[in-house]
Amino acid sequence: MKLLKLYSILSLGILIFPLKANAQKTKPNLIIIHTDEHNFRTLGCYRDLLSEDQAFVWGKGVEVKTPNIDRIANEGAICNNFYASSPVCTPSRASFVSGNYPIKTGSYRNDIPMKDEVVTFAEVLSKEGYATSYLGKWHLDGDAKPGFAPKRKFGFNDNTYMFNRGHWKGLDDVNGKPALFGKYNPKTQKQTISLKKVTKENFTTDYLTTKTLEILERDKNKPFCIMVSIPDPHTPNTVRAPYDTMFSNLHFEKPKTLKTPLNEMPSWAGAKGKSLINELDQAKMQRYFGMVKCIDDNVGRILDFLDKNNLTDNTIVVFTSDHGDLLGEHHKNDKSNPYEASAKIPFVLRFPSKVKAGKVIRKAFTTADFTPTILGLMNAPSIKNTDGVDASTDFSSSKKEVVDGRITYMTASNQNWIASVSNRYKLVLSTKDKPWLIDLEKNPDEDINFYKNPDYKLIANEMQTELLKQAKQYNDPAFSKKKARFISK
């Protein structure tokens, strides 16, 4: 009888063990491909959502083909209204990994280290048994440059190929560790490198992708979470051959808003600043497109690995960026203001087992919403008291298109403006100018102020009430003083 009971117990254990093993295998994997200063109009999947004049602001047919990033969108979901919580590197990245607005993380401006107590999505997944890795630019450990493998890992257990700052064009292995390719002057913090000598083995985008594939090969038989942060297409606009000349045949026309008289622009747009431009640098624009093409080709390498290893169905792939690049719109390059090309970022997500292919989400999000949403989509424990929302049901619902008028909030690292944004409207309050209300549907060029228009009175009031409410709720620096400093009339 005792032997029979023992046999029964052993048999039950044998049956249960495979169930546990299978449950472990069914945990979804996560790969985040994260770029820096990426204009959403350079991606085919975003051009497909735009009118022709908005898709081709540099001239009809002036485009870079991005079939691999487009594949993620076509086989998953694309967010049409995803914004940086603050359109600058450090604040946006801090929000992305934590689910909180920049001031709560401590990293509300560039080069300010993230608080030790911040909990990231990687820390949650690590505790859930995931192999967690981070490669590429981090920018959350203060002013260290390049700052390889910071001691504070924030849940990314393998951060061997993480570097804190810099847009290095070449990386190499030295004694089993990553190092800058070429010469580096620690006093000037500059890398001297000849891109003519850089190959696909050493160019940073390729190098980081190769290391990502090595980690995938190492961890493919267990749940994994990998974030690879490519420092392109941020300036300097340089790229290895053949991408450096791939678009030399293109001529970039001036965007319509590059012709706007400066006196018709709001002060928060930097209309009186030194960085204004009146012409496009053709060579830099061509190389920017080259950087995007190189990125897309490397995204293809990652997708191919997933296909060949039967990992596609159970792996969430996210492609996104920290902020945009105006690329000549509104007389500006780079970022830092609330215009679409600066603050709106690409965000596409594929998860075949849960997310309907071809889904379009027209709902305003910021980078603060990423962490609670991805943890929700993965059925992982949530982080308590995050500022962002869990929007996982928007991705997993049976709807092919999600339309939601949610109003959310963005802030400036220089504290000159705050903005509320929905899937159609944007309101900017500034210390330097009158309120600006933008109707993105009627005026996608964002050069008309509807604030005083009587037909928009209710909308203006709603956007302003919600903006001031959220800015106060999330302890925006503007409310650290006795009175809000923004002009609101």
Describe the protein.
A hairpin with a 2-residue loop joins strand 6 (171-174) and strand 7 (177-180). The protein folds into two domains: 28-407, Alkaline Phosphatase, subunit A (3-Layer(aba) Sandwich), CATH 3.40.720.10; 411-480, Arylsulfatase, C-terminal domain, CATH 3.30.1120. The strands form five sheets. The chain has a nine-stranded mixed beta sheet, with helices on both faces. It has a four-stranded antiparallel beta sheet with strand order 16-17-18-19, covered by helices on one side. The longest helix is centred in the middle third of the chain and has 27 residues, at 282-308. The chain has 489 residues and is α/β, with parallel strands linked by helices. It has helices at residues 2-26, 44-47, 52-55, 67-74, 89-98, 102-105, 121-127, 204-219, 282-308, 340-343, 370-377, 392-396, 457-473, and strands at 29-35, 77-79, 82-83, 131-137, 158-163, 171-174, 177-180, 183-185, 190-192, 224-229, 315-321, 347-350, 359-362, 365-366, 401-403, 408-411, 417-421, 425-430, 436-439. The model is unreliable at 1-24 (pLDDT under 50).
